[in-house]
Amino acid sequence: MPQTKHPSHAPQLLSSVTVAHLPARHAHAHKGDFGHVLVVGGDLGTGGAVLLSAEAALRCGAGLLSAEAALRCGAGLVSVATRPEHVSASLARLPEVMCLGVSSANQLMGVLERASVLVVGPGLGQAAWGRSLLSAVANAERPQVWDADALNLLARTPLALPSGSILTPHPGEAARLLGISTEAVQADRPGAARKLARRYNSVCVLKGAGTLVADPAGQLMLCERGHPAMAGAGFGDVLTGVLSALLAQGLDAWQAAGLGVWLHACAGERLGVKGRGLAASDLAPVIRTLLEEHSACLA
């Protein structure tokens, strides 16, 4: 059931009752029914970020996806556009993922046309390679999830995001986008999330303890789930892949953000009881289990 938007002064608490459900899949479903997510990123030295996003997207059920988090959310196919130097390692880690080595934005155009949802930012870097790829992605008119260095580049060079997109800043990235201090963001997290959603006409996921989701109209959702063991590298990349998979399966940005944030936080909470040492890649199989418990594949 789609979520009901509440008055702007009353944040909606994310729970199994309030988040959206994915519909069951009919018996004759095929991979083309569930979208094509392309994950763009992974500059030299940061190739793992795109893989985390890709696996999560696939395991969340998208049809043609790009990175590891996308993979674990149930997609049929996954695509990654990354540095040519990372292709061999990517295929060894995730043989289900279609991996394209790109040295310039021109090599990205064909796969951009085939994708239905785009992820940009994980491991993208802020050098010329990342800037050129981000510019190409921004001009593609389809729902997108922007994370990490895509947000840092956005803070330096204003770009218009396509309709139905999601931003996923942590407090430091939110501060750069708003031109204020991180302390100011943390002092008024609801205000910061709403400002970002209005400024970029997108749904904003402001990460951190008590993750917030805001839309351009000022609606707000609050997630009180999660665990301190999630304070580590790569967890945002997994969330990005989950969000892309949910968009690819037909949820709008508001619904996908609410469900994706809740799944991600609940998975971390379930694993966090074991204590320190939780790795971001540990989340993907648990998110897959939680999604099946919440939205069964078969009716």
Written account of the structure:
The chain has helices spanning 48-58, 68-71, 87-93, 109-114, 128-138, 149-156, 171-178, 182-187, 189-200, 235-248, 253-272, 283-294; strands spanning 12-13, 37-40, 64-65, 77-82, 97-101, 117-120, 144-146, 166-167, 203-206, 212-214, 220-222. Strands 1, 2, 3, 4, 5, 6, 7, 8, 9, 10 and 11 form an 11-stranded mixed β-sheet that branches. Helix 6 (149-156) packs parallel to helix 7 (171-178), helix 10 (235-248) packs across helix 11 (253-272) and helix 11 crosses helix 12. It starts with 11 loop residues before the first strand and ends in a 5-residue tail after the last helix. Helix content is 40%, strand content 13%. The model has no long low-confidence stretch (mean pLDDT 89). With 299 residues, it is an alpha/beta fold. A hairpin with a 5-residue loop joins strand 10 (212-214) and strand 11 (220-222). It is built from 12 helices and 11 strands.
Short descriptors:
299 residues; alpha/beta; 11-stranded mixed β-sheet; globular
